[in-house]
Write a structure and sequence with these properties.
Shape: globular
Structural class: alpha/beta
CATH superfamily of the largest domain: Type I PLP-dependent aspartate aminotransferase-like (Major domain)
Number of strands: 16
CATH architecture of the largest domain: 3-Layer(aba) Sandwich
Oligomer: single chain
Strand content: 15-25%
Number of domains: 2
Helix content: 25-40%
Length: 424
């Protein structure tokens, strides 16, 4: 029995209907932007393996930091103890995040980072003797798969089976020039009820919705309305964080700053699962009391894992180099050039670019399912042509490692152009 057969026998993969799925390529090696399967076939990782590998695979600098930490202190519980890597990482995050972010809570992944933020928002008001149990989120948002994060998400087929078992969340449209006045008015009426603990959002780009983008000015206004009505704001930067939008964080485009931020994915450069939820001092102070019951009783076994912290410190140091910042801008330049040549294609409806993110919407006669026939044909076509892309319905997006070279980006672009001609 080969590895592929064993995989089918034993493993349950995420977001996969195994009855209709074809066997998954067995990846045996990664280096830079490339991956190789057991047959020797080469793939360009055009989505940074779900947005986590900005510095490419098998990055020696991060690997050496992990090795050094493993031979010193691989793990110690964070309940009742602390350690240097967590202290240094929090100090570094305080330097690069918006200045109002003062306290850092560590967990395991993007979903748990969101869970922590939602629980903190609701318990804050409980500690104050107020009952605020509702959340506001955008339509078609995606914040994760744990129960609180799932409730805040708006892509229905992900959550359909769990209706009635979730937090109460009211969803508003993503603001556009056409609807923003109506959105602001609806939002203002909601927060004025004092029923809502928080407004959670993916700042500027809704990733899983197909890289839907909206203007920082509209998000600034929603944050201002929230602050005026004592509703916490939660920026889910799990996808956008650490350079994806052209700035270190999408919130760096904003004048107003959120009360909480959720970070994961690229935090450790794609090496070790880890997440952070950051908070303003005001939020933390709502739990700072003589009453033990007002503490945040939430934790994870691997909270602030020293090895993960070492990986994150190495990853952030790479991000902040001038070379990497230049790489991000160069990818953006190439995306914009590709946008100019592809946006007039007869099968292209819209295109959009922000930082290293490129998205293209294909014209279709009927609405496409998230994992529908067109998407599946496109995905299979890209894999066949040695490109790892995961279309969302009729939307193709690119989110490559920052170290990608011109020749590899051009191959991605040319395969997308080929797909527009051959996949129907």
């Amino acid at each position: 029995m080969n590895l592929s057969e064993k995989d089918i026998l034993y493993n349950w993969h995420p977001y996969t209907q195994h009855k209709t799925a074809f066997p998954h390529p067995v990846i045996v090696k990664g280096e830079g932007v490339l991956l190789w399967d057991q047959t020797g076939k080469e793939y360009i990782d055009a989505i940074s393996s779900w947005w986590v590998n900005p510095f490419g695979h098998s990055n020696a600098f991060i690997a050496n930091a992990i090795y050094k930490q493993l031979t010193t202190l691989e793990h110690v519980l964070f309940g009742g103890f602390t350690h240097e890597p967590a202290i240094l990482l929090s100090e570094k995050l305080a330097q690069i995040l918006p200045q109002n972010q003062k306290k850092f809570f560590y967990s395991d992944n993007g979903s748990t980072a969101v869970e922590v933020a939602l629980k903190v928002a609701m318990q804050y008001f409980y500690n104050k003797g107020q009952k605020r149990t509702k959340i506001i989120a955008f339509e078609n948002a995606f914040h994760g798969d744990t129960f609180g994060a799932m409730a805040a998400s708006g892509i229905s087929f992900f959550t359909e089976a769990f209706k009635g078992s979730l937090l109460e969340v009211i969803r508003i449209p993503v603001p556009t020039p056409e609807n923003e006045k109506e959105v602001f008015e609806t939002f203002r009426k909601l927060v004025e009820t004092k029923d809502y603990a928080a407004f959670i959002f993916e700042p500027l780009v809704q990733g899983a919705a197909g890289m839907v983008m909206y203007a920082p000015e509209t998000l600034d206004e929603l944050i201002r309305i929230s602050k005026a009505n004592n509703v916490f704001t939660i920026a889910d930067e799990v996808m956008t964080g650490f350079g994806k939008t052209g700035k270190n964080f999408a919130c760096d485009y904003l004048i107003e700053k959120p009360d909480m931020m959720c970070l994961s994915k690229a935090l450790t450069g794609g090496t070790i699962p880890m997440a952070v939820t950051s908070f303003s001092q005001e939020v933390f102070d709502g739990f700072y009391a003589d009453d033990t019951n007002k503490a945040l009783f939430h934790g994870h076994t691997f909270t602030a894992n020293p090895t993960g912290c070492a990986a994150a410190l190495a990853s952030i140091s790479l991000l902040l180099t001038q070379e990497m910042q230049d790489n991000i801008q160069q990818v953006n330049v190439q995306h914009k050039a590709f946008e100019q040549r592809i946006k007039t294609h007869p099968r292209v409806k819209t295109t959009r670019v922000l930082g290293v993110i490129f998205a293209l919407e294909i014209k279709v006669e009927n609405e496409q399912a998230y994992y529908g026939d067109l998407r599946n044909k496109l995905y299979a076509f890209f894999i066949e042509n040695g490109i790892i892309l995961r279309p969302v319905g009729n939307i193709i997006y690119i989110l490559p490692p920052y170290i990608i070279e011109h020749v590899h980006l051009e191959k991605i672009y040319s395969v997308i152009e080929k797909a527009l001609e051959e996949v129907y």
